[in-house]
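Entry 12.
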Amino acid sequence: EQSNSQRDYSATPGDEAGEFRVNTMAFTPEFLETYDIPLLSGRNLDRNIANDTFVVGESETMNVLVNELTLARMGIENPDDAINQRLYRNSDEGTLREAVIVGVVPTQNILGLFNQEKPWVFNYSPTAVRIASIRITGGNMLGTIEDIERVWKRVIPDYPMQGRFLDQTFDEVYDVLKYMN
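Predicted 3D structure (tokens):
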């Protein structure tokens, strides 16, 4: 469902002095629903809209979602005012990339409680997604996991599935931090 890194963006093309750092996350359009993240304004990304899919080396313009903290860095107070606004960054190859804001989500601490909230830019880049998140609700947990493993083996037979429950990951992080303090 996601991968993330950091990039410098500006609200004006070529404005290096006005650049600000944002975390960037590539995800699939199902990410918001999986993690129950509401839209404050605009729309979600969609596989059927050309500029919603970012292709490395080919796309110079991409549609993105941003969080409220990114809007604050841009000087925009109202999420509705952000729709169709642009962010710019110079790629590593020197090609100007334009990000068009099509949706706004709330600022949430998605890096863990021991991190500060960050400005985010979210895009759909299928080649950058390396982690799958699956929300399982009640019912036959063991049978559901077996179904997931069966589909995984059919779709990606050469790469073994490495499944973990999110609460296990959280417990491990907090256990380490507990012993550090």
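Annotation: Residues 89 and 132 are 28 Å apart (CA to CA). The two ends are 32 Å apart (CA to CA).
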